[in-house]
Amino acid sequence: MIVFGNRDFSTGMLLAGIKKSYIFENRIQIVEILKTLPKDEFIIANASVIEAVPELEQFSNVVSIPDKIADFGKIDDLQHIIKSVVGMDLEV
Predict the structure, then answer these.
(1) Residue range 58-67: average pLDDT?
(2) Which residues of 17-48 are buried (b: 16+ CB within 10 A; e: fewer)?
(3) What's the pTM value of the predicted model, to 2 decimals?
(4) Other beta carbons less than 10 A from residue 50's beta carbon
(5) Domains (ranges, CATH) in the chain?
(6) Between the CA atoms of 39, 41, 46 and 52, what dihedral angle is there, to the nearest 10 degrees?
(7) Which of 3, 15, 38, 69 has CB atoms 3.0–4.6 Å from 21's, for a disulfide?
């Protein structure tokens, strides 16, 4: 599993134990990393990253996470997504 996201999201995923968690700085950085990954790699990315990096469409297992907590309907939505991806409950 690999994560691409804003500073808060990527840092949170690092703290949750996802070692391949990258802070999105620019499109070229992500494209270079994608070149090294198998097409079936499980990728979690903020919505803005997916929008900025169309090359992510080549991958079959991409999960989009909103950029801000305010973009979720409620905090339970975020907890549900994290649990389904990480496999454990995290306090948000």
Answers:
(1) 88
(2) ebeebbebeeeeebeeebeeeeeeeebbbbeb
(3) 0.76
(4) 17
(5) 2-86 (3.40.50)
(6) -20
(7) 3
